[in-house]
């Protein structure tokens, strides 16, 4: 099984950006824990602050990988382009958020990508990514 984890804008700052919301661990520190927990799954990671790069990467793997775990960051709330990309892929996409977006600012309560995704997981910190992998494993 091959899964791509995609993180969007500002998630490269995990561990330093608002640790009260996002925790004190970087994703690069967390990723080896996932890879150790799931040795039977090839887990790759990609992060970009650029919307088009996220789309390019998902299109690159979205017809051959078994799933994509996507934390689109702020693009979640604005990107019709990501929505359209997700709809075009063969691989199922799980939308993930570290924080519970529904406990935050009003503008974060609406996702432009949820309707295109297989499911949504939010509010469990970095463990949201593990839960998404579990969902993709079936």
Task: Please tell me about this protein's structure.
It is a single chain. The protein is α/β, with parallel strands linked by helices and 138 residues long. It has helices spanning 19-22, 27-37, 51-61, 80-88, 127-137; strands at 2-7, 42-47, 67-71, 93-97, 119-122. A five-stranded parallel sheet has the order 2-1-3-4-5, sandwiched between helices. The radius of gyration is 14 Å and the shape is globular.
Task: Fill in the keyword field for this structure.
138 residues, globular
- Radius of gyration, in Å, reads 14 Å
What percentage of the residues does DSSP assign to strands (E)? 15-25%
Give the structural class: alpha/beta
Q: N-to-C terminal Cα separation, in Å?
A: 12 Å
Count the E strands: 5
**Spatial shape:** globular
Mean pLDDT: 93
- How are helices and strands ordered from N to C? EHHEHEHEEH
Strands of the widest sheet, in order across it, are 2-1-3-4-5
The major pleated sheet works out as:
5 strands, parallel
DSSP summary: helix tally: 5
Q: Could you name the ranges where pLDDT drops below 50 across 5 or more consecutive residues?
A: none
Helix content: 25-40%
